[in-house]
Protein backbone atom coordinates (compact mmCIF):
# COMPACT_ATOMS: atom_id res chain seq x y z
CA UNK A 1 0.00 0.00 0.00
CA UNK A 2 1.24 3.45 -0.91
CA UNK A 3 0.38 6.24 1.56
CA UNK A 4 0.99 9.98 1.50
CA UNK A 5 1.73 11.44 4.93
CA UNK A 6 1.82 15.22 5.35
CA UNK A 7 0.92 18.18 7.54
CA UNK A 8 -0.68 21.11 5.73
CA UNK A 9 -2.43 24.30 6.78
CA UNK A 10 -5.92 25.43 5.75
CA UNK A 11 -4.39 27.03 2.62
CA UNK A 12 -2.46 23.76 1.94
CA UNK A 13 0.86 25.31 2.97
CA UNK A 14 3.55 22.73 3.75
CA UNK A 15 6.62 24.84 4.37
CA UNK A 16 8.81 27.79 3.53
CA UNK A 17 12.52 27.88 2.69
CA UNK A 18 12.69 24.06 3.02
CA UNK A 19 11.46 24.16 6.62
CA UNK A 20 8.18 23.34 8.34
CA UNK A 21 6.34 26.45 9.49
CA UNK A 22 5.06 25.03 12.81
CA UNK A 23 6.19 22.78 15.63
CA UNK A 24 3.60 20.13 16.57
CA UNK A 25 5.13 17.42 18.79
CA UNK A 26 2.01 15.19 18.57
CA UNK A 27 2.19 15.31 14.76
CA UNK A 28 5.87 14.29 14.92
CA UNK A 29 4.94 11.39 17.23
CA UNK A 30 2.23 10.23 14.83
CA UNK A 31 4.60 10.52 11.86
CA UNK A 32 7.24 8.49 13.70
CA UNK A 33 4.83 5.76 14.83
CA UNK A 34 3.28 5.37 11.37
CA UNK A 35 6.51 5.44 9.31
CA UNK A 36 8.96 3.58 11.59
CA UNK A 37 10.11 0.32 10.06
CA UNK A 38 8.92 1.33 6.58
CA UNK A 39 10.29 2.70 3.33
CA UNK A 40 9.82 6.47 2.99
CA UNK A 41 9.91 8.16 -0.42
CA UNK A 42 10.93 11.81 -0.62
CA UNK A 43 12.44 14.45 -2.84
CA UNK A 44 16.02 15.59 -2.38
CA UNK A 45 15.06 18.89 -0.72
CA UNK A 46 12.93 17.10 1.86
CA UNK A 47 15.83 14.74 2.60
CA UNK A 48 18.19 17.71 2.96
CA UNK A 49 15.83 19.36 5.46
CA UNK A 50 16.63 16.60 8.00
CA UNK A 51 19.72 16.96 10.21
CA UNK A 52 20.41 13.25 9.53
CA UNK A 53 18.45 10.28 8.15
CA UNK A 54 15.43 9.36 10.25
CA UNK A 55 16.08 6.25 12.34
CA UNK A 56 14.47 2.87 11.61
CA UNK A 57 13.29 3.81 8.08
CA UNK A 58 14.63 3.12 4.59
CA UNK A 59 15.01 6.44 2.76
CA UNK A 60 14.31 6.50 -0.98
CA UNK A 61 15.43 9.89 -2.31
CA UNK A 62 14.33 11.21 -5.71
CA UNK A 63 16.76 13.54 -7.45
CA UNK A 64 17.82 14.43 -10.97
CA UNK A 65 21.36 15.05 -9.69
CA UNK A 66 23.79 12.44 -10.95
CA UNK A 67 26.23 11.11 -8.32
CA UNK A 68 24.13 12.46 -5.43
CA UNK A 69 25.90 11.35 -2.22
CA UNK A 70 23.80 9.89 0.60
CA UNK A 71 24.60 8.05 3.82
CA UNK A 72 24.77 4.27 3.81
CA UNK A 73 21.33 2.66 3.83
CA UNK A 74 19.70 5.40 1.74
CA UNK A 75 18.62 4.72 -1.85
CA UNK A 76 18.81 7.31 -4.65
CA UNK A 77 16.52 7.13 -7.68
CA UNK A 78 15.80 9.50 -10.57
CA UNK A 79 11.98 9.56 -10.56
CA UNK A 80 8.85 8.67 -8.61
CA UNK A 81 8.04 5.50 -10.56
CA UNK A 82 11.54 4.14 -9.92
CA UNK A 83 11.10 4.97 -6.21
CA UNK A 84 7.81 3.08 -6.06
CA UNK A 85 9.25 0.11 -7.98
CA UNK A 86 12.19 -0.24 -5.58
CA UNK A 87 9.95 -0.50 -2.48
CA UNK A 88 8.44 -3.75 -1.16
CA UNK A 89 4.99 -4.47 -2.62
CA UNK A 90 3.68 -6.33 0.44
CA UNK A 91 4.01 -3.54 3.03
CA UNK A 92 2.96 0.05 3.52
CA UNK A 93 5.28 2.61 1.90
CA UNK A 94 5.05 6.32 2.76
CA UNK A 95 5.47 9.32 0.47
CA UNK A 96 6.70 12.08 2.81
CA UNK A 97 7.22 15.07 0.48
CA UNK A 98 7.83 17.62 -0.67
CA UNK A 99 5.24 19.50 -2.64
CA UNK A 100 6.24 18.30 -6.11
CA UNK A 101 6.47 14.67 -4.99
CA UNK A 102 3.01 14.91 -3.36
CA UNK A 103 1.60 16.40 -6.57
CA UNK A 104 3.13 13.62 -8.69
CA UNK A 105 2.00 10.83 -6.35
CA UNK A 106 -1.51 11.85 -5.23
CA UNK A 107 -3.21 9.93 -8.06
CA UNK A 108 -1.00 6.85 -7.47
CA UNK A 109 -1.43 6.36 -3.72
CA UNK A 110 -4.08 4.34 -1.86
CA UNK A 111 -4.29 6.44 1.30
CA UNK A 112 -3.58 9.95 2.59
CA UNK A 113 -2.69 10.55 6.26
CA UNK A 114 -2.98 14.31 6.59
CA UNK A 115 -2.54 16.53 9.61
CA UNK A 116 -4.67 19.59 8.86
CA UNK A 117 -3.16 22.49 10.79
CA UNK A 118 -5.92 25.02 11.49
CA UNK A 119 -4.13 28.18 10.43
CA UNK A 120 -3.20 29.99 7.24
CA UNK A 121 0.49 30.67 6.73
CA UNK A 122 2.81 32.10 4.13
CA UNK A 123 4.64 29.33 2.30
CA UNK A 124 6.50 28.45 -0.86
CA UNK A 125 5.53 24.77 -0.92
CA UNK A 126 1.96 23.50 -1.00
CA UNK A 127 0.02 20.25 -0.69
CA UNK A 128 -2.23 19.41 -3.66
CA UNK A 129 -6.01 19.84 -3.34
CA UNK A 130 -7.77 16.66 -2.21
CA UNK A 131 -10.54 15.87 -4.70
CA UNK A 132 -13.38 14.60 -2.48
CA UNK A 133 -14.92 12.75 -5.45
CA UNK A 134 -11.80 10.54 -5.45
CA UNK A 135 -11.11 10.39 -1.71
CA UNK A 136 -13.28 9.36 1.24
CA UNK A 137 -12.55 10.62 4.75
CA UNK A 138 -12.42 7.52 6.99
CA UNK A 139 -10.82 8.91 10.18
CA UNK A 140 -10.83 12.30 11.88
CA UNK A 141 -9.35 13.27 15.27
CA UNK A 142 -9.23 16.89 16.45
CA UNK A 143 -6.50 18.22 18.77
CA UNK A 144 -6.85 21.63 20.42
CA UNK A 145 -3.84 23.92 20.76
CA UNK A 146 -2.11 23.76 24.14
CA UNK A 147 1.18 24.70 25.80
CA UNK A 148 3.13 22.46 23.35
CA UNK A 149 1.08 23.18 20.21
CA UNK A 150 0.52 26.74 18.90
CA UNK A 151 -2.30 25.68 16.57
CA UNK A 152 -5.38 23.46 16.59
CA UNK A 153 -4.95 20.51 14.22
CA UNK A 154 -6.86 17.47 13.03
CA UNK A 155 -5.52 14.07 12.01
CA UNK A 156 -7.36 13.02 8.84
CA UNK A 157 -7.16 9.72 6.95
CA UNK A 158 -8.52 9.45 3.42
CA UNK A 159 -8.91 6.24 1.40
CA UNK A 160 -9.17 6.25 -2.37
CA UNK A 161 -12.76 5.78 -3.57
CA UNK A 162 -13.09 2.71 -5.79
CA UNK A 163 -14.29 3.90 -9.16
UniProtKB/TrEMBL annotation:
PROSITE patterns: DHFR_2. InterPro entries: DHFR, DHFR-like_dom_sf, DHFR_dom. SUPFAM superfamilies: Dihydrofolate reductase-like (SSF53597). It catalyses: (6S)-5,6,7,8-tetrahydrofolate + NADP(+) = 7,8-dihydrofolate + NADPH + H(+). Pathway: Cofactor biosynthesis; tetrahydrofolate biosynthesis; 5,6,7,8-tetrahydrofolate from 7,8-dihydrofolate: step 1/1. Keywords: NADP, One-carbon metabolism, Oxidoreductase. One of its GO terms (biological process) is one-carbon metabolic process. GO terms for molecular function: dihydrofolate reductase activity; NADP+ binding. Belongs to the dihydrofolate reductase family. This is Dihydrofolate reductase. It comes from Flavobacterium urocaniciphilum.
